[in-house]
Amino acid sequence: MTQPAKPVSLPTLVPPSAEFAAQANVSGMDAYKALYDSAVTDPSAFWGNLAETELDWFKPFDKALDWQPPFVQWFTGGKLNVAYNCVERHTKTARKNKAAIIFEGEPGDQRIITYQELHRLVCRFASSLQQLGLKAGDRSIIYMPMIPEAAIAMLACARIGVTHSVVFGGFSAEALKARIQDLEAKVVLTADGGWRRGKEVRLKDAVDEALKFCPTVEHCVVYKRTGSDCHMEAGRDHWWNVLDETAREDVPAAELDSEHPLYVLYTSGTTGKPKGILHTTGGYLLQAQMTMKWIFDLKESDTYWCTADVGWVTGHSYVVYGPLAAGATTVIYEGAPDTPAFDRWWRLVDKYKVSIFYTSPTAIRALIRQGDHWPERHNLSSIRLLGSVGEPINPAAWEWFHRIIGNEKCPIVDTWWQTETGAILIAPMPGAVPLKPGSGTLPIPGLVAEIVDHAGNPVPDGHEGFLILKTPWPAMLRTIWGDPERYKEQYWSKVPGAYFTGDAARRDKDGYYWILGRVDDVMNVSGHRLSTMEIESALVRHPAVAESAVVGKPHEITGQAVCCFVTLKKGITDHDKLGLELRQWVAHEIGPFARPEEIRFTEALPKTRSGKIMRRLLREIVTSHTVAGDVTTLEDMNVLTSLSAQHDED
Ligand code: WT7
Predict the structure, then answer these.
(1) Which of 287, 424, 524 gets mutated to test ligand 1 (max ligand atoms within 8 A of its CB)?
(2) Per-residue pLDDT for 589 more than 50?
(3) pLDDT, tens digit, for every residue of 276-316?
């Protein structure tokens, strides 16, 4: 057992310093309230005005908001282009030679790409895609390391109206295959590999494996990153640099409908099948850009770094689309925070003079563990604002982030949102809203949130309940790709007329929101969503496994860790060997990041009379350790089961 963390005492209320408030984009509580009130009173006028002034349109929209619950459309009739707004428009201003992307590879290679240069690269790659016959409405899969070409691929697709789906490089060939098939993608954009902890992550090998089963894929474009040998299938596979030799630079930005599908991002739900969350063009981009200004208080002079991978929604909205739409300099780092040593991130902050730094509580906890001497070796005084996302930030992590990284002078914006919400929904405007450590504070303008009970009735302030959202927002998901029924059922049926977030929360007397975690069978491991069902289905595909139940177990660093209860088929007893093999199996079926922390073998799983596995009981076992995790005691669960079977539980 590790030592319990030292209790830390935190201030309960941290108002913005006078200095910060004086320079903030939104300064003082009255300014926040005025924005909130005007948005809630007339959302169409509020967002419509912003859309007109903040985005560039080829054709103005007719109507700002068309809300036919549960389907929403923003800025209908309007035509625009995301890549135009993120890149080309800045080349017509003084930003043209500003760094759009500052990149550092794990081996230490560095590139600084200006807006003009980014525009050239995006157009050239868009031209390569056109050479391959891609056009608006087609779908692409992007399976890339964290290098500028990942962003270039996204933007090139956006420029010609190809809907992309980025698959995180940590996903296996199996997971990649399922996403390609669901999207019926025509092209896969990848690299030979990327660098992670000094080793090559061989992406193209996984693509080759997946493409054996993906008849819709006509082409695969491979960027040479590591230079290692890889198989190239004649007629199907093309080197990025070879296509580039004949690429043009005069590819016009497609004039796309405001509701044109920009991307699909798969996320885990409560079944074994991931959901393809669809985001569209105008509304998504507007909210991504506005939250850069409101929540990150973005200024022309900032150097902004969000450490997320582009494979997650945070990487879409806050590495690529939001920052670039807002004309920011966005930092991209390819590798691991501990390579070559635990100060890599702080070295980068110091080197590039990062002023806004956005990361996850998991990363913070992992770095705390390595000791203060790592950040203390570097000058972090360029940082003026810190951000956190992915899970509630615990007091010890908040305190350390504030004191050691922020030198007690930087606000910490705790940003609550989801893959489905597309952009930040609950977070402080740091020059306006006093912080309460651990709370995401208040909603963005116009968003009406509520805490309700099982019947959908509001609970009193201070009480725990389900977080629901009662008004549509611009970056809201539009549907689940190919499955509008699941969209309705998942998000809009639990509390009729409201969006069900799947999170438990409480609101305090000041109207601040405190997120308590998921209420469904979804785990949060290192700020990444994992479905218990998805891992269970992976486990039962293994020939030795009869049945499995997966729960999240509290973990000091990653928040939760994957813990699997497994029953084996008759006659199979080699637990030691199988324990390792099954962990490896899950990594193979889903991806290394989903590798279970623990496999516990049991003769039977606790079930209700109707045959449902009582995960709740298993969660108690792994959380409170009231039952030891060995086989003998687990057998006793049959007794527990028959006792609790009287009330049919979840
Ligand atoms: C779930 C969404 C949004 C990008 C990262 C994860 C949890 C997210 C916070 C926060 C407390 C948070 C919620 C949410 N979550 N941010 N600031 N405080 N919890 O995206 O994979 O779609 O997961 O992450 O449980 O529902 P995601």
Answers:
(1) 524
(2) yes
(3) 999 999 999 999 999 999 999 999 999 999 999 999 999 99
Give the closest residue (by CA) to ligand 1 atom 27.
418
Q: Is any ligand 1 atom within 6 A of the Cβ of residue 518?
A: yes
Count CA atoms within 13 Å of residue 328 on its CB side.
31
Please tell me the distance between residue 220's alpha carbon and the centre of ligand 1 in angstroms: 33
In the block, which residue shows the tokens 């890599």?
344
Nearest ligand 1 atom, CA 529? 21
423-440: average pLDDT: 98
Integer Cα distance of 528 and 555 in angstroms = 14
**Cα(480)–Cα(119) distance, rounded to whole angstroms?**
31
| Beta-carbon contacts of residue 573 (< 8 Å; ≥ 6 apart) | none
In this prediction the pTM is: 0.92
Ligand 1 atom at shortest distance from the alpha carbon of 420: 22
pLDDT of residue 270: 77
- Cα-to-centroid distance, 501 and ligand 1 (Å): 10
Q: Kindly state the percentage of the chain with pLDDT values over 70.
A: 94
Q: How far, in Å, from the CA of 111 to the mean position of ligand 1?
A: 31
> Which of 83, 53, 44, 275 lies closest to 179 in space, CA to CA?
275
- Pairing label, strands 256-257, 237-239: unpaired
Q: Which CATH class is domain 18-505?
A: alpha beta
Average pLDDT, rounded, for the chain: 93
Map out the domains of the chain as residue ranges.
18-505, 526-649
Question: What superfamily would CATH give domain 526-649?
Answer: ANL, C-terminal domain (3.30.300.30)
CA angle 7-11-14, nearest 5°? 145
Contact assessment for residue 420 and residue 277, using Cβ atoms and an 8 Å cutoff: yes
Q: Give the per-residue pLDDT at 609.
A: 65
Residues 6+ apart with CB under 8 A from 120: 249
